[in-house]
Amino acid sequence: MQKEQVIIVGAGPSGLAMAACLNHHSIPYIILEREDCIASLWKKYAYDRLHLHLDKQFCVLPHMPFPDSYPRFVSRQQFVSYLDDYVSRFKISPLYRRTVESAEFDGETGKWIVKARNLGSGEVEELEGRFLVVASGETSNPFTPVIEGLNTFPGEVLHSTRFRNGKAFQNQKVLVVGSGNSGMEIAFDLANHGAQTSLVVRSPVHILSRDMIYLGLILVKYIRVNLVDSLMVMLSKLVYGDLSKYGINRPKEGPFFMKAVYGKYPITDIGTCKKIKSQEIQVILFSFFLPITLLHFLVIVVDTVNLIQLKIDNLIGNLEEKGIECTRVCNNNVNQKSW
Ligand SMILES: Cc1cc2nc3c(=O)[nH]c(=O)nc-3n(C[C@H](O)[C@H](O)[C@H](O)COP(=O)(O)OP(=O)(O)OC[C@H]3O[C@@H](n4cnc5c(N)ncnc54)[C@H](O)[C@@H]3O)c2cc1C
After folding, report:
1. Contact between residue 111 and residue 88 where contact means Cβ atoms under 8 Å apart
2. What confidence tier does 1 reach under pLDDT thresholds 50, 70, 90?
3. Distance in Å, CA 137 to ligand 1 centroid
4. Atom of ligand 1 nearest to the CA of 13
5. The domain containing residue 98 runs over which residues?
6. Do 312 and 170 lie in a common domain?
7. Is 15's C-beta closer than 6 angstroms to any atom of ligand 1?
8. 99 and 168 housed in the same domain
């Protein structure tokens, strides 16, 4: 069995940041990554027009600033190139094509036993580590819900991880299912490319501009979350008005509270609201009957669930019940300590 000081699961931005910090303190580690590259979400599973939704100061990884030439909102390509440079600078070499299937804590030895499937040979490899870092992301497993009538739907169904841009959808009727940040932005992109776009909205959402979020992230370091939330809601009402007539309702709880407690992000508006107001994008309430047979395409953008994260969370709960202290080292965001 291979023995390591620290085992990191996942070579996304969080896993890489962790590796660089360990490197900085000369602590040996190994990264297990199921894909064949670092930052697969950004390299393989994101749409073309994606930019970091937050100012670069909130997304930079430890020990290496973004290049000065980068704009305030870093594009996907720029972020990928920054991460590639990061990996070279800190000499990070993940073990690719290893899917971690289980991690168990042995109370007697005080070590983690991690089992990872080698996707090349198909064999399960066992590793032992003193520390385990789960950096497997919160949106890394695409999820397609069961939708009645989908198996007889004559059009094309596409998960958002396979959506690149709206070019191919001109004049097509497209329904986007899911109104988080990706759904809103994909709907915007589709409408920009001349698709007849509709968007299914299930739950109330907060819609904030990039500048409002920037202000909120600064203020939340100094004043109470409920005060920041009141300001955010007031600004959102001033800028976007009452969106309920277009089918978008505001939650009762504030945006920063909801992020902290439920992990639910507010929507960063990059122009979708204007298109909703001008009815270029139609909002359809989730409870309504969806005449999907009238559509050409269905783009699915719903919450993704990361199973390993859930299993580890259960495990941590069990260990804590037994009085074993656990620290969650990595969060799902790059560097958003204040969220
Ligand atoms: C549209 C969009 C916009 C975003 N904008 C921002 C932003 O502006 N700022 C920001 O900070 N964040 C943003 N995010 C959040 C995004 O999740 C983070 O930027 C970042 O990718 C999270 O990094 P991570 O390393 O935690 O997770 P991920 O990037 O998801 O990486 C997890 C890695 O773990 C690997 N993995 C998963 N399970 C296993 C397993 N069992 N075994 C081995 N490997 C495994 C995956 O293959 C993946 O490479 C955005 C996300 C999306 C989708």
Report:
1. no
2. confident
3. 5
4. 25
5. 2-134
6. yes
7. yes
8. no
